[in-house]
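Hi, here's the filled form for the chain we discussed.

Project: internal
Contact: R.S.
Residues: 411
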Amino acid sequence: MKEFKNFLPISQAHEIHDILTSNIFPWYWLDDVTVSKEEGSEVPSHCRSQPGMHHTPYVNGRASEWYDKFSFIYHNILDAMGLDCKDWQLDRIRCGLNFHHQMDCLHHQPHIDYPETQVGDHFTCLYYVNDSDGPTVVFNETEKSDEYTIKYKCHPEKNKLFVFDGKHYHASSCPKEHDARLVVTINLSSRARNEQQSEIRSIPEIRSIRPDNLGWVEQKLSPDAMSFLWHIIDNHGSSYKDKLAGNINSSYALTDENDWFLNNVLANTINFYINEFQPQKFMYVVPSKQELRYCLSDMWVNFQKQTEFNPIHAHSGYFSFVIWMKIPTTFEEQKKLHIASDVNSNCISNFEMRYSDILGRQASYIYGMNPDAEGTMLFFPSSLNHSVYPFYNCDEDRISISGNIMVESYT
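And the returned structure, exactly as it came back:
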């Protein structure tokens, strides 16, 4: 059993929370959160039936239209656990909502997610979406029993992942001090086990194909890096707004003194990006040490005021980056404003990446703008479209830094 606190980057944690608490996410009613109607009579009195809501973005190869919003968690789990996707497959993603309830019971009905996973290796992974009470209880028993003994309790915390052997019976419980308990359950199983079952059932092997694509890097900057950036902001140059696409009045040129930021931060990020995404496969030229090198061609600071914005745009250069230095608003409060509270969009005040999916459709990835994103850098190909939406009802400036990286000759 393992617990991973602060499991996802904070922007992704906020995005999942915003999706599940939005007025457009399709929740479905359950008479009991762990058993079907047919099994309701078997629920003992000490763990009575409790209604709730669910949505299953993925199960056994069938995906809902919301699958893409949650599928990345599977890959994050593999990385955290040191597992290989060639050995472990995704069986199910299930979103669950337990309501506040004061009933006097220790937990819900003990169960296992997939009876057939008792054969072979299987992990049950619980991602807690919000801060709540109502612990997950894991039992010692791996077979159905009239009496279960507690092996472990995990208490919900926002952005925590809890992983345990899926053969163990387990149970959720309702929050008594919070309004709701939101959990995303991810079930992983050994491909070897599934291959054995496929042979028994004479079902052909099925595997998913995920073609290579470029992406971007999210990086939390060190205190030294942040201190340097505040220093060059205090010593910024002349106005830079005539060179930018944004509707932002106060933008100023910055100087990377002695190439400190390039050498101490960006050089490592560039190498990480190249190793991670191998952009040369997408016709990107990766400079050799003998002929070409990367340089920071320009860098600027934006002092964004309320109602100001950056329309969708791309940058010049090879790579680009954006760094959030100060964010005086929260998306949660901005979303409550009358212009945003009753709409399906989650764009107000936020940062958005725009790209084409494998079907050629426009897709987006939204970063919720909250103070905990301060000190975060996004590093991406310069031609990747992105935009910054306006915020409202705040007199403080949002401060961000952007820059472009070019390739130049050594000679």
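Let me know if anything looks off before we file it.
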